[in-house]
């Protein structure tokens, strides 16, 4: 019996029992839709959380906290920096030192206190540091400032009048309003001499402003100075990083040649794990966002597997209808089966016909279910945030996605649907091959 004839035989049966077949397909489609939509919640939330992490931290970034020596950790030196720069897959190594006092920055009649960090701007450029405006420093007395630095420059001539009595915040009109680029600002540092405070003022030129932090609640008012200015402050105070309250005579020479923050940047995401493994084997204490992402992805993988399992139960319930449909089809077509066997049809061919029919129901149901699932997913992403905001009067996080249907989920759902439907048709198909020809002709099945 030709394949074309088999499909024609299937179509004739479906036409005769159109309503029953359509209801079975509908049940299968509903099960498939339920599976996809349920699992899509896990995929959607995973995408939102992972994307959230990617926006907050650079995925190629590896923080190196120190070198393990026995039970202790030591700070990193230029010798460590040289080693890190030679590791395969490393694009850049940035090294920063925090000024160990909070200097005062003065621009005309405006003043602000901010943390200052010494860095190598050539390394920062290699790492891909982003600016909102301006450029990176080229000379030793050029600096870049955080995105919110200007918001803390306050007119000191107004005294306490700059603060709002109700909120306690600085009034807008007393904040610096002009452009900061190419403006000369004075950094004042201090030291203790015979219990008296001595200050030194270093003129600096602002040439760049860092990009706005990815989080709305984050405020970046930092100032990044050159290593030369950092050294100038150390020479003035006689202490590491200009630290106050330390007797210069008690300072060890080695302590002035270490770094507070060292960050390794990989050339791409694939290199991060290999670099991390190598640094760990060399006793460096490190942290990478990839470690965090692994834990997040593991949790969501377990959740998605559970949701898919629950969704599969719906398809299994739908398979009961398929089993019933195929059993009735075998009973109703007993005479046709008897005729086919009488003219020499192979039992395998008869079995194949009924398996094709159950597969047809599964495929059509899966296609319809997938289309409906995409529609439901769209409505969930559009409507659910609005409902939650109206019900709880809270704004949803920007970019939050409740449902996402990747192509892999579609293949998983269709595969499960097809497997279950074929499995449901096996017993009726086998029964069809066992029909006695004479009894079938007499309709005594």
UniProtKB/TrEMBL annotation:
Annotated coiled-coil positions are: none
Membrane topology field: Multi-pass membrane protein
- Residue ranges annotated for the ABC3 transporter permease C-terminal domain, each copy included: 309-435
Using the record's annotation, list all stretches that form the MacB-like periplasmic core domain: 21-280
Domain of life per record: Bacteria
What sections of the protein cross the membrane? 21-45, 298-323, 360-384, 404-426
**Localization:** Cell membrane
Keyword set includes Transmembrane helix: yes
Q: Does the keyword Membrane apply?
A: yes
Q: Print the keywords alphabetically.
A: Cell membrane, Membrane, Transmembrane, Transmembrane helix
UniProt lists the family membership as follows: Belongs to the ABC-4 integral membrane protein family.
Q: Know the name of this protein?
A: ABC transporter permease
Q: Which organism is it from?
A: Ornithinibacillus salinisoli
């Amino acid at each position: 019996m030709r394949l074309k004839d088999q499909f024609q035989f299937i179509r004739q049966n479906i036409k005769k029992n159109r309503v029953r077949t359509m209801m079975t397909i509908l049940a299968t489609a509903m099960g498939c839709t339920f599976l996809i939509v349920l699992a899509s919640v896990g995929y959607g939330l995973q995408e939102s959380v992972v994307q959230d992490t990617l926006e907050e931290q650079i995925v190629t970034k590896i923080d190196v906290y120190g070198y393990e020596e026995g039970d202790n950790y030591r700070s990193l030196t230029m010798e460590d920096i040289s080693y890190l720069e030679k590791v395969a897959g490393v694009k850049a190594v940035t090294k920063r030192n925090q000024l160990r006092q909070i200097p005062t920055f003065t621009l005309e009649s405006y003043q602000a206190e901010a943390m200052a960090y010494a860095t190598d701007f050539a390394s920062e450029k290699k790492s891909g540091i982003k600016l909102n405006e301006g450029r990176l420093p080229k000379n030793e007395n050029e600096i870049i400032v955080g995105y919110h630095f200007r918001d803390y420059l306050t007119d000191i001539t107004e005294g306490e009048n700059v603060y709002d009595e109700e909120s306690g915040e600085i009034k807008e009109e007393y904040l610096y309003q002009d452009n900061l680029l190419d403006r000369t600002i004075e950094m004042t540092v201090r030291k203790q001499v015979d219990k008296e405070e001595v200050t030194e003022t270093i003129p600096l030129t602002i040439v760049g402003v860092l990009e706005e932090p990815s989080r709305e609640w984050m405020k970046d008012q930092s100032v990044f100075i050159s290593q030369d200015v950092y050294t100038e402050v150390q020479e003035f105070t006689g202490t590491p990083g200009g630290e106050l309250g330390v007797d210069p005579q008690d300072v060890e020479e080695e302590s002035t040649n270490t770094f507070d923050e060292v960050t390794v940047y990989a050339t791409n995401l694939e290199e991060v794990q290999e670099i991390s493994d190598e640094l760990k084997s060399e006793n460096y204490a490190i942290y990478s966002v990839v470690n965090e992402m692994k834990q997040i992805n593991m949790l969501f993988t377990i959740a998605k597997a559970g949701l898919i399992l629950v969704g599969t139960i719906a398809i299994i319930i739908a398979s009961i209808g398929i089993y019933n449909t195929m059993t009735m089809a075998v009973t109703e077509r007993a005479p046709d089966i008897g005729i086919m066997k009488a003219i020499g049809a192979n039992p395998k061919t008869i079995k194949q016909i009924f398996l094709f029919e159950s597969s047809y129901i599964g495929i059509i149901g899966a296609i319809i279910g997938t289309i409906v699932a995409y529609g439901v997913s769209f409505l969930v992403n559009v409507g659910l945030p609005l409902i939650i905001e109206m019900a709880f009067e809270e704004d949803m996080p920007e970019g939050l996605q409740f449902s996402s249907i990747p192509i892999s989920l579609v293949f998983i759902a269709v595969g499960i649907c097809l497997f279950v439907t074929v499995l449901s048709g096996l017993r009726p198909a086998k029964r069809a091959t066992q029909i006695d020809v004479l009894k079938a002709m007499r309709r005594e099945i």
